[in-house]
Design a protein that fits this description.
Layout: E1 2-8, H1 13-20, H2 22-30, H3 42-46, E2 49-54, E3 59-65, E4 84-87, H4 89-93, E5 100-107, E6 110-114, E7 122-126, H5 130-144, E8 146-147, E9 158-162, E10 166-170, E11 173-177, E12 180-188, H6 191-200, E13 213-217, H7 233-243
Antiparallel strand pairs: 1-3, 1-4, 2-3, 5-12, 5-13, 6-7, 8-12, 9-12, 10-11
Helix pairs in contact: 1-2
């Protein structure tokens, strides 16, 4: 297993294109892995999960995979520094029952509802209330071998925060995802099941930046697994808006995963 850290240049032309269409970002990431004729299982075969963490003036992109990636083919100027790739096995080896971690997860908490026009038809909608988002995560913990401990204030030791909406288009289908960033602590109850969740992700929209669970050793008074507080949703949206100021309209790509061409 490998974990890559990319320091993205927010002024990169390719990155501006990708932020305008999350499916393009998926394609950019998958270009680092060996090609496969079976597009339906391409991401799963390589075990790819990814997430973007905005900082106050840039973006960090984390990509986890079974297959060792090759980032040399990224467009010139896409990164501010060389890609950092490290093995994930030391983290996996540290997982034991009762072990406590700080964690971060960008997820797509959803629920199914019936539609008014057809009671037999159900559609998936996002959880927008923080209490329901936390409940969703607690239920996922029961499924994936961990629990959320109680905080000093008496509630679950996790803080959900809305992230900018992810939008795009795949062929003729529109993509809209309302992700939620969870920062907090967890305790492992079933190492085998929990390791499976680390390797395969949690929840839906894994092709589009959701589901990657990252861990850090707990420290005194730590509130999330990163040394600096993440920017607010407003700051994230400002960064994304700035990156998209000069996005050019692109000609639709073919159904394959080859690079598209900008329409002048």
């Amino acid at each position: 297993m490998y974990l890559t850290k990319l320091t993205i240049n927010p002024h990169s032309r390719a990155f501006r294109r990708d932020t305008a269409n999350i499916h393009d970002m998926h394609r950019t990431i998958m270009s680092a892995y060996p090609d496969s004729p079976d597009r339906a299982t391409y991401r799963h075969t390589n075990g790819v999960l990814w997430r973007i963490d905005p900082t106050h003036d840039a973006f960090l992109q984390y990509i986890q995979s079974h297959t060792q990636p090759t980032w040399d083919q990224l467009p010139e100027g896409h990164l501010l520094k060389p890609a950092e790739v490290r093995p994930l096995q030391p983290v996996l080896d540290s997982i034991t029952a009762g072990r406590r971690y700080a964690f971060r997860l960008l997820a797509n908490p959803t629920r199914c509802i019936r539609t008014d026009d057809n009671p037999e038809h159900r559609k998936r909608v996002p959880h927008r209330l923080p209490a329901k988002q936390i409940e969703w995560l607690i239920n996922k913990g029961e499924q994936h071998g961990f629990v959320i401990p109680t905080s000093r204030t008496g509630g679950p030791d996790v803080a959900p925060a809305p992230a900018p909406t992810l939008r795009g288009k795949k062929q003729n289908h529109n993509i809209t995802i309302e992700p939620v960033r969870f920062d907090g602590h967890l305790v492992v109850t079933n190492p085998r099941t929990f390791t499976h969740a680390i390797l395969n992700g949690i929840g839906r929209a894994k092709s589009y930046g959701c589901g990657l669970l990252t861990l850090a050793p707990t420290q005194t008074h730590i509130t999330h697994p990163h040394p600096t507080a993440p920017p607010s949703q407003t700051e994230c949206e400002t960064l994304l808006h700035s990156a998209n100021l000069h996005v050019k309209k692109c000609r639709p790509r073919a159904s394959g995963d080859g690079p598209g061409e900008d329409q002048q």
